[in-house]
């Protein structure tokens, strides 16, 4: 395969994986929880971003997901209307808004997680453990390369 063919093949596969991710996230989508809401619940319910009392700052969600604060606020508003999250203003700094999962939100997140994990387990069983480890390693390398290239481009501007 010449260099141009390799470029076209990688580009094609990346596009196909993006299309398949829509199918993958279809295992999350339901009338109760959208894909974007699931990703937010994952960040809120995970321990990596948590501050005091297991809560997460809205600004941290915005930064982590590369989504504007107004867009994050709109998404959080939808989750709040569904009863999945609660928001509160920081006692010491009124500019800071903290977000936490409600019990109902924890249950919705757990149901979505079960569906996603079941789907991933099917993929692993078909791909095999060794190939899954190799794929995970290669995707991790690809992610780092793309992230580094983006950082270099930002610095060059």
Describe the 3D structure.
This protein is mostly helical and 157 residues long. 69% of the residues lie in helices and 8% in strands. It is built from six helices and three strands; from the N terminus they run H-H-E-H-H-E-E-H-H. Helix 2 crosses helix 5 and helix 3 crosses helix 4 (69-81). The chain is globular and about 60 Å long.
Protein topology:
Layout: H1 3-25, H2 35-45, E1 56-57, H3 58-65, H4 69-81, E2 85-89, E3 97-101, H5 103-127, H6 129-156
Antiparallel strand pairs: 1-3, 2-3
Helix pairs in contact: 2-5, 3-4
Helix/strand-derived class?
mainly alpha
Helix content: 55-70%
Largest sheet: 3 strands, antiparallel
Distance between the termini: 34 Å
Q: Are there runs of 5+ residues with pLDDT below 50, and where?
A: none
The 3D shape can be described as globular
Helical stretch tally = 6
Question: How large is the radius of gyration?
Answer: 19 Å
Short overview:
The chain has 157 residues and is mainly alpha-helical. The protein has helices at residues 3-25, 35-45, 58-65, 69-81, 103-127, 129-156; strands at 56-57, 85-89, 97-101. The protein is globular and about 60 Å long.
Give the key terms.
157 residues; 69% helix
């Amino acid at each position: 395969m010449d260099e141009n063919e390799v470029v076209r093949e990688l580009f094609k596969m990346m596009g196909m994986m993006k299309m398949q991710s829509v199918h993958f996230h279809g295992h999350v989508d339901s009338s109760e929880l959208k894909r974007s809401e699931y990703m937010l619940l994952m960040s809120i319910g995970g321990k990596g971003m948590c501050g005091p009392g297991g809560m997460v700052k809205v600004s941290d969600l915005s930064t982590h997901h590369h989504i504007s604060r107004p867009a994050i606020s709109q998404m959080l508003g939808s989750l709040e209307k569904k009863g999945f999250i609660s928001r509160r203003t920081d006692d010491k700094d009124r500019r800071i808004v903290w977000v936490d999962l409600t019990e109902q939100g924890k249950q919705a997140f757990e149901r979505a997680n079960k569906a996603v994990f079941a789907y991933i387990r099917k993929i692993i069983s078909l791909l095999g453990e060794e190939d899954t480890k190799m794929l995970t390693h290669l995707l991790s390398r690809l992610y780092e390369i793309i992230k580094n290239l983006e950082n270099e481009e930002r610095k060059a501007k």
